[in-house]
Amino acid sequence: MRPILITVAVTAALGLSACGFGEEGISVSKGDPNYNGAVLFATRCSGCHTLAAAGTQGTGNRNVRTQGPNLDQRTETYEDALFAIQNGGFSGAIMPQNIVVGAEAEAVARFVAKYAGDEAEESPRPTPSGDTKSSGSSEEASEPEGHSENASGEAQPHGTNTSP
Q1: Which CATH number goes with the domain that contains 40?
Q2: Is 38 within 8 Å of 26 (Cβ atoms)?
Q3: Greatest CA separation for the chain
Q4: Is residue 33 part of a domain?
Q5: pTM
Q6: Angstrom distance (rounded) from CA 94 to CA 138
Q7: Closest C-alpha to 90, from 77, 103, 101, 104
Q8: Is residue 68 in some structural domain?
Q9: How many domains does the chain have?
Q10: Is 57 within the bounds of a domain?
Q11: Does 94 or 162 have the greater pLDDT score?
Q12: Position 113 pLDDT exceeds 60
C-alpha cells in the first residue's frame, strides 16, 4: 500500500509541475516581446494583483490587507509601474520592495504598462497646473472670476479699458 501512495504522490507532483506555475492563464503570445514580463508577473505578483493578460486573480478575499490593485481596472505608465516595483508600491507599506529587479523589473513594468487597464474607466489625472482633468470634462474653459477676454483672446481684469 505504501509504494502505491508514494507513486501517486510523485505522479501528482510531476503533473502539477508540468502546468507551468502560473503560465496556464497567460493570454500574451510567446512571440510577444512582453511575454517574459507576463510570466514574471504571473509568478511574482499573482498573489495580490489581478491582471487578465497574465491570468492572475489576486487574492480571493477582497478584505485582506495584502490585496493589491486590480490592474485590469487601472492603467499604469511604465515609469509608475517601475517605481512601484522598486519602492514597494506607492505607499511602501504592503507590497514587497524589489520583488523583481534589473531587467526583470523592467520587463514586468513594460508588460503592466501595455496590458493594464483593459477594464479601466478614464480616471482624473493631475495636470501640470495641479488641477485634475477627467475625460468627461468640458472642452470649454471658464474664465477666472473678475476677468474677461479682449479681442486678441488675452484675459483682462473687468473694467480695464483696452481701447485706444
Answers
A1: 1.10.760.10
A2: yes
A3: 107
A4: yes
A5: 0.60
A6: 38
A7: 77
A8: yes
A9: 1
A10: yes
A11: 94
A12: yes
Q: What is the pLDDT of residues 48-57, one digit of tens each?
A: 899 999 999 8
Joined together, the cell numbers standing for residue 59 give 487574492
Q: What is the Cα–Cα distance from 138 to 142, expressed in whole angstroms?
A: 10
Query: Are 153 and 162 a contacting pair, CB within 8 Å?
Result: no
Question: Which ranges of 1-145 would DSSP assign to H, the alpha helix?
Answer: 2-17, 35-44, 78-87, 102-115
Residues 6+ apart with CB under 8 A from 70: 49, 50, 51, 58
**Residue 147 CB partners (closer than 8 Å, separation 6+):** 155, 156, 157, 158
Please list, residue by residue across 72-105, b when 16 or more beta carbons sit within 10 angstroms of its beta carbon and e when fewer do.
bebbbeeeebbebbeebbeeeeebeeebbeeebb
3-state secondary structure of 50: strand
| 105 contacts: CB under 8 Å, gap ≥ 6 | 82, 85, 86, 98
Domain range for 61:
20-115
Alpha carbon distance 164, 161 (integer Å): 8
| Residue 27 is assigned to a structural domain of this protein | yes
Question: Any idea what the Cα angle at residue 95 is, between residues 91 and 96, rounded to 5°?
Answer: 120
Return the C-alpha cell found at 148: 474677461
